[in-house]
Design brief:
single chain; 7 strands; 24% helix; alpha/beta
C-alpha cells in the first residue's frame, strides 16, 4: 500500500486546561479545570477534585489533562485557600462544602463525581450530606489519622463509593457518621 492510500488518523486532541473564578458565598472561588477538546459537556459526569490542606486545586494540576480527555474536571482552591477569597475563621468542613455547592449550582451541574484527597475527604463527606442526589460516585484518599474522627466508614487507604449503584439496587446510600 502506498503512502497516499493509508488512512491518516487524527491526533488525539488534548483537553483545554484553564483557570477561572466563580462566585460563591465567600466571594470568588478560584478553579483549575479541564474541558475535553470536543466540548465535553453532558458527555460524562463531571469530576470535582477536592484537595486536602492547604486546599489548593493546584495539587490536581498534573491530573487535569489525563482526566479531562473524556469529561470536565474541576479542581477548586477551597474558600480561604490558594487564590480564592478568604472565609470566616470559624468555618469548618460543612462551610467549605457549601462553597463548593455554590460552584456546582453556578455551573448548572446536575451530578458530579468526587475525588478527594486527605483533609479534602471531610469536605467531600459534608458535600454528600448536603447534596446526596447530586453526588454520583466518590473516590476518597484519606489521611487515615485525620479522617478517622470524621467517619467510621473509612477503614482503607482509599475507598471508591458508587452512590448511583446503591440507589439503583434499591439500597440506601452508605451513612456517614460524624
Amino acid at each position: 500500500m502506498n503512502r497516499a492510500q493509508r488512512a491518516v488518523l487524527p491526533a488525539a486532541a488534548e483537553p483545554r486546561v484553564r483557570r477561572a473564578y466563580f462566585d460563591c458565598r465567600y466571594g470568588q472561588l478560584h478553579v483549575h479545570y479541564a474541558i475535553p477538546a470536543g466540548g465535553g459537556f453532558d458527555e460524562a459526569t463531571p469530576l470535582l477534585c477536592i484537595a486536602g490542606a492547604p486546599g489548593s486545586g493546584r495539587f490536581f494540576r498534573p491530573l487535569l489533562a489525563p482526566l479531562g480527555r473524556d469529561r470536565c474536571v474541576y479542581a477548586p482552591d477551597l474558600p480561604g485557600c490558594g487564590e480564592s477569597d478568604p472565609m470566616p475563621a470559624h468555618a469548618g468542613s460543612a462551610d467549605l462544602a457549601a462553597g463548593l455547592g455554590d460552584l456546582i449550582d453556578s455551573m448548572l451541574l446536575r451530578q458530579v463525581d468526587l475525588l478527594a484527597h486527605e483533609s479534602g475527604v471531610a469536605v467531600a463527606l459534608a458535600l454528600v450530606q448536603q447534596r446526596p442526589t447530586q453526588i454520583a460516585r466518590m473516590v476518597l484518599s484519606p489521611d487515615t489519622e485525620s479522617v478517622r474522627s470524621e467517619t467510621r466508614a473509612l477503614r482503607q487507604p482509599s475507598l471508591v463509593i458508587d452512590l448511583r449503584a446503591a440507589e439503583a439496587s434499591g439500597h440506601d446510600a452508605p451513612e456517614f457518621e460524624r
